[in-house]
Design brief:
Elements (H helix, E strand, L loop, with lengths): L1 E5 L9 H15 L3 E7 L12 H5 L6 E5 L7 H7 L3 H26 L3 E4 L2 H9 L3 E5 L9 H11 L4 E6 L2 H10 L7 E3 L25 E5 L8 H10 L4 E5 L3 H10 L6 E5 L3 H8 L4 E4 L5 E2 L5 E2 L8 H8 L3 E5 L15 E3 L4 H13 L1 H18 L2 H13 L4
Parallel strand pairs: 1-2, 1-4, 2-3, 4-5, 5-6, 6-7, 8-9, 8-11, 9-10, 11-14, 14-15
Antiparallel strand pairs: 12-13
Amino acid sequence: MKILYISKSVVPSRLADSINIMKMANGLMANAHAVKVVVPDYHGHKEEETTCVNTFYCVSPNLKVKKISVFPKFLDKFLNSLLKSPLVAMGFRFYTKTLFSFALVRIILLENPDLVYCRFLPGAIIANCLGKKVILESHAPFEHFGFISRIILKLLFSSKYFLGSVVITKPLKESWLKGFGEIKDKILVASDASDIPEKNSFKIKLELQGNYSFNLGYAGHLYPGRGVELIFELAKRQREFGFHIWGGNPNDVKYWIEKSCDIENFIVYGFVQPAQISQYHALVDVLLAPYQNEISVEGGGQTNTYQYMSPMKVFEYMAAEKAIICSDIPVLREVLNDRENCFLCPTNNVDIWEKTVVKLLDDKNLRLSIAKKAFQDLSLKYTWKSRAEKVLEKFLGHES
């Protein structure tokens, strides 16, 4: 089957939605389908050091990525200088997405796919109008859609070409059904996922900084709500442990390097490419996911999406076969079970987090058993390949 995966994400990028679409597309391809990812070319909005998109995300070299440029190539330098202004950049992204939508008509007609998988609502509408089978994935609750978007979704859901919607958690499904009850039989909960790293396949050998006998790691963004503040407090209390922080945008990395200048065991590495992060996971003893009840999103501001989230980080931790300490947030219990495949702690109780860290230090067998169970759960239910298989089986059945 020929599948076109349409998204408005920046590719390549360190943003979670970008990683999600590339990994899911790779999962679809792993189920013996021909997949092509179609995204806009945002010109200057990409990772500067990236030479190969597929290598950056650690996906198959056979996964095709088509970037649609709405401006001539010779304007790149001029556009890159303009995009240094945040206001201009915002307008440019909106303009690019609008032109991208029009360009999709030609792309879909030329590619003539059997299925269009979308993380971009206008793309789903266009594919539907062109008579293509459509699956729409969304990570936003019903309440986040405006009046016009809700009308468009209603029209899409009434089409014979609409196969169904994919959401990442049960609360997200409940949110959608409040506004779109007509799709109760056409909505699927499919948690995020992770690939299983191939051990001893790393081309570049990475090492931990410092010389600590017990090491803990955190991978992800560094802005408020991600729990880096809690890890920093743990590092101040337990100076004999190494706390390793991977990820973040340049400004956040600079902030934490300056803030932790007197705390030698709080080690900030900066951004690590998705293809390399599993190697760092393999080097520590415990992995931390201290989410808070209010989480900032890219670009600032606070939101309550913690109620709906299914963070890829948790699944990548499970794939690393390391003990996990995670915040006890109700939605995460869809995947995590306290003292079985992880330890769950109150979001901001540093004392309990510290006791749990010490407990795992003292009990290696407990550490290993927790890690093994997490890895087993991941292997059986939460790989990208199994996620894609679940989606195709639900909406296409024997055709998949």
